[in-house]
Write a structure and sequence with these properties.
single chain, mainly alpha, 3 helices, flat
């Protein structure tokens, strides 16, 4: 297993944790439990962002910028649905 595969696994695991913490935050019945899940979600999102930045810097998670025309089309498509 090489470094890229390890980082991909860490990223996927971190994303999964974010999903679980988000659902825990949404479904919490008490303020203390909700705050605990929310804090954990925030920490996990920071970790996920750090892992993504490291992968992107090495070219392991390439992304592309959407052009302005695509942004405008999507904005117009969903503008009337709110």
């Amino acid at each position: 297993m090489n470094d890229q595969m390890i980082m991909e696994n860490i990223l996927l695991t971190t994303k999964g944790a974010c999903d679980l913490y988000m659902h825990g935050t949404i479904e919490s019945a008490t303020k203390n439990v909700k705050q605990t899940f929310d804090d954990s979600l925030s920490d996990s999102l920071c970790m996920q962002g750090d892992v993504y930045q490291k992968m992107a810097a090495k070219g392991w998670y390439p992304s592309q910028q959407a052009d302005q025309q695509q942004i405008t089309q999507v904005r117009q498509k969903y503008a009337g649905q709110v």
